[in-house]
Amino acid sequence: MSQAHGKLRPVLRFSDLLIYGMTYMVPVAPWVIFGFLHVTSGGTPALAYLLGMGCMVFTAASYATMVERVPRAGSVYAYAREALGPFAGFMAGWLMLLDYILFPALTCVFAAIGLNSQIPAIPREAWVVGLVLVTLAVNWFGIGVSARISAVLFWVSVAAVGAFVIAAVIALNGGKGAGHVGMQSLWPSHIVWQSLLPGVALGVMSYLGFDGISTLSEEVRPEHRHLIGRAIMLSLLLTGVLFVVQASLLSDLMVGFDIRDPASLAYDVANATLGPTLGAVMTWTVVVAAIVAMVPICAGVARLMYAMGLDGQLPRVLGRVHAKHGTPHVAMLLTSVIALVVALVGVDHADELSTMINFGALGGFLLLHLSVLRFFGKREKSVRFVRHRLVPCIGLLVSVGLMLSLSPLALEVGAGWLVAGLLLWAVALRGRPASDGLPVDEVMDSRVGV
Questions:
Q1: Which pLDDT tens digit goes with each residue over 377-418?
Q2: Distance (Å, rounded) from C-alpha 229 to C-alpha 92?
Q3: I need a surface site. Which of 91, 121, 210, 336 has the fewest CB within 10 A?
Q4: CA-to-CA distance for 252 and 322, rounded, in angstroms?
Q5: How much is the pTM?
Q6: Which residues on neighbouring strands pair with residue 2, listed in sequence order?
């Protein structure tokens, strides 16, 4: 049951935000997509991760800039709405929804595949249903509960990464793979840029999630709100280091190794060079990490829907907050239903789901950078050239370049989603009264409970 004056509860600290962002990006993501990234990048997965992090630094900086001025749930939707107007805000939110809707479904599919490989008697579809229900249950009881559970399981993932790094270094120095810890994948003697750029675009997918921190702005303790931007940037950099190190070590270990199946390449290499025990540990860690990641991912989707519902850009019932737990429960229910349906449909098509995610995120990033330029150029007339002019301009160019390197399928699905959003605005939302301009507290207090 909701109440008329329900509000999101400010309970999160800086450490919670940092762990939330890193959990969303999944510290063991290289184990899942290493084979695909190795093939797509022309054998330079570590370099693809490093360049991908460099690309996202500009976007993280723009997020950090805007969150200081517009500390609202909804992230880029709220920023574009504030700086560019209701239509741009809606389109930013609509584009990010494509990313935010597909990402929990894809994560669920990866976890279901891993669980099914360990317990074949239970089909993937059953695992999908169970994972979605567990995620909904954890998120239902409040962001504080979600943060505590995510923190415990996050450190399990980090410990597994540490064990892998130690075992890999020992194996390499013992003569396995390249016979030493090298830099072949990080900076090879010959780079084929035409092959590397699609790899960078795929690597960027692993970084999607640092932006999710900004969706929690209203749930951060007042004394920690000035640290939101720092949490966004630091989570990206720390996770990037983990990605690059893991990809580089895997590349060194697989020297002389024949690729049989890109989907299982990391596990095959680990089994052959580090032993079956660590290979099994890696498999189960990926499953745990995927389950853990679904909690903040679904929480972020729900808060974007909540913000858009609050402003009347989606059905207003999505803007309601649970009276007891202080969560956007209606939005969470809808998020879970959508994730369940998409995951069930795509449970045997993880590769196709992966290609579709980046379009929405990159489209949202484009509007984010435009929001920084407009907000600090026209409204505040800032004289800080680097932060308010140069960084968003570079971010714009990077986002456009990455979008042009996406697969034809991703561009087709993204274009269809974009057209659907334009039609929705033109037919149902244009001219609709919204709560634009009201302070968050006043908007929240105006909601009628159910």
A1: 877 778 788 889 999 999 999 999 888 888 888 889 899 999
A2: 20
A3: 121
A4: 51
A5: 0.79
A6: 322
